[in-house]
Amino acid sequence: MKTVNTVRPEPLAPELLHRMDAYWRAANYLSVGQLYLYDNPLLKKPLELSHVKPLVVGHWGTTPGQNFIYVHLNRVIKKYDLDMFYIAGPGHGGPALVGNTYLEGTYSEVYPDISQDEAGLRKLFTQFSFPGGISSHVAPTTPGSIHEGGELGYSLSHAFGAAFDNPGLIVACVIGDGEAETGPLATAWHSNKFLSPTHDGAVLPILHLNGYKISNPTVLARIEEQELDQFLRGCGWEPIFVSGDDPDEMHQLMASALDEAIAGIGRIQDHARGVGDANPNAPKNPDSPPTRPRWPMIVLKSPKGWTGPKVVDGLAVEGTFRSHQVPLLVDSDHLEHVAQLESWMKSYRPEELFDADGRLIPELAALAPEGDRRMGANPHANGGVLLRDLRMPDFRVHAVEVPSPGAVDAEDTRVLGKFLRDVTVLNETQRNFRVFGPDETLSNMLGAVFEVTSRQWEARTQRNDEFLAPAGRVLDSMLSEHQCEGWLEGYLLTGRHGLFNCYEAFIHIVDSMFNQHAKWLKVTAQLPWRHRIASLNYLLASHVWQQDHNGFTHQDPGFLDHVVNKKADIVRVYLPPDANCLLSVFDHCLRSKHYVNVVVAGKRAMPQWLTMDAAVVHCTEGIGIWPWASNDQGSEPDVVMACCGDTPTLEVLAAVSILREHLPALKIRVVNVVDLMKLQSSSEHPHGLSDTDYDSLFTKDKHIIFAFHGYPWLIHRLTYRRANRNLHVRGYNEEGTITTAFDMRVQNRLDRFDLVQDVIDRLPQLGATGAYLKQLMQDKLVEHGQYIAKHGQDMPEIVNWTWGDPRTLS
């Protein structure tokens, strides 16, 4: 079958081709050395088993192809003076990126002890997959990287996130054909429907089609080339195929492919920006609406383990799955492989590549770009270098007026939306702030942002669409949590700011993406050359207690448990009880750096408790006694009523009002928690309370009835070292259906009537008075069940309850 859209080579000059091939050989030599060698880095003496690492671990299969791509990207960077960096999507391609950044000089600048000489080569080789060294994949320790190469699937989303608002940048994104089988990558092909050729940069995907995963073929390598071409075109791309295994032919093909791709990007951008020749994708009829551009991409089909051993112990290796990891076992049980390893490494002719001192010869070193144009030194790949603080409005202007606690209701996230609108306006000229979410910005009541911006959208529009435009500060028009998370991560990692709003139950879809980003932050915080980036901010709305119409499937607050697993110096969790607290918390989060901030807030109308001044103080402290709700001033409390989250706060205060009405002599202390990590010991989390401060709030021995937004055991986990063991937590207990808002609380025993009973059960001194009140609460629960079954809504005394005049409760 005729090859589909295969480029015709525009010949490289023989001398340039020779040097590029030699540079590629140098990168391959360094890659094999990293995998195997402990000593003798230039093979100046015959290779012996003692020169090989005791445990050889790593991955070879993707490495030579990535080395090939890197040297060709270097050529076009120099030829066209491109601002470009490299995202390595294939798993475990670490040797390639480490080796190439070493050859271009960046690695030695970042790590001076890995010098560009024989001693530096020895250290470079030894550290790879070695105790105390570096990992086998592209990691935060790798210069030029914004993408952790551990879990697969996010490279293309990261690339687009990096390109947004970077009009001069091209992100070369190498995608493994195994990685292309993951859900996140499969949907990321559609990112081109959201990229503005006017205001954003470009992404150049390079699908590295080497045929195999760990032990299986890849799907895209086993379909007909025409089908693959149709698939990629159907996703809106113009694929350019480069296929073969002969190095000279492949160099020519790849050079032509890249020239064609860079020219295509330039034509699209020039047309959109009103310069240069017309876009060839533009409609012929000038009265027609503009056609979405089809961006070029490259499909590189080369053998897995290219240039490595072709046969080992009688089995084919190059071009098969057997080259995925280390193609040769070299140990005391395989002494015959020492000579084969030496022959393999010498096939790259290192004596032609490095001088006697181990330095890359000057005519090869000259092929690399210089300064910041080197992909390992590109400042976008160390985004904190480019980070500028947001221009922040005064959140206090959006304060909800609270004449007395609980006197007014407000929709917390709707109030926050007005603040985010102002943040958007103030940072429009900087173009460094965006809102991301999977089609939930309006649902989560953040619609005020659409007063000043649109959703960015490059596909077709129709008459009844809302807020869609070629440019906008909101990216929420794709129903993929993976995509939105990946876009935002790429945006943050290249020095910008943003937030991700999502339904609480479905944020779990990106659990593992959060894992990877948190690990990235943890490692980069320990690297002095890595500059801090803006925090990853999650707003979890439409939460578990506001899903009475969606039911059980939409009820899961467990992301908080997942987040708390990470390092304490990285994660922060906030549950503001009302709108003013939410404003204060989010102002702090948007100003913060190098954290993951998780904020849980409701979108339904709820009572407002604190004035803005009081909210700022409360949120700054993160936890505190609410004196206006307590009556234990001047004495020890009989019980501590604690709450964390908007709904638990409402129910605790309602329970307190019942207790104070029926048991006026009972001394109650109300403690509200905004910053969840305050509950941990100060020895475990920077925000944690000391034991003295914790005991001053919760006492050492009084019963604590704690109403929590999430799963109860998280509170027990955070407080397990505290002296007071009389902790009784109510929270979500995996109960829920299509029911009323209050019945959701009843089913999980977070309601006011059950909380009152919890107090009575822990205070036997209440005697008969407590017994009668407990009976009343049980009667109320029966009455509640009968009422909602008949009327389909909560009882008026629930719906219309207010805290009341604080003077009568003081």
Write structural notes for this entry:
The chain is α/β, with parallel strands linked by helices and 810 residues long. The protein has 25 helices and 22 strands. The strands form six sheets. A six-stranded parallel sheet has the order 12-9-13-14-16-15, sandwiched between helices. A five-stranded parallel sheet has the order 1-2-3-5-4, with helices on both faces. Helix 2 (63-80) packs parallel to helix 3, helix 16 (579-591) packs across helix 17 (612-621) and helix 22 (752-762) runs antiparallel to helix 23 (767-791). The longest helix is centred in the N-terminal third of the chain and has 26 residues, at 247-272. It is elongated.
Give the SSE map.
Blueprint: H1 14-36, H2 63-80, E1 83-88, H3 94-103, H4 106-110, H5 118-127, H6 155-163, E2 169-176, H7 183-188, E3 202-209, H8 225-234, E4 237-243, H9 247-272, E5 295-301, E6 311-312, E7 315-316, H10 336-346, H11 362-365, E8 409-411, H12 412-426, E9 433-436, E10 455-456, E11 468-469, E12 474-475, H13 481-493, E13 497-503, H14 511-524, E14 536-541, H15 559-564, E15 571-574, H16 579-591, E16 596-600, E17 605-607, H17 612-621, E18 623-625, E19 639-644, H18 646-662, E20 668-673, H19 691-698, E21 703-708, H20 712-718, E22 727-730, H21 741-747, H22 752-762, H23 767-791, H24 796-799, H25 806-809
Parallel strand pairs: 1-2, 2-3, 3-5, 4-5, 9-12, 9-13, 10-11, 13-14, 14-16, 15-16, 19-20, 19-21, 21-22
Antiparallel strand pairs: 6-7, 8-17, 18-20
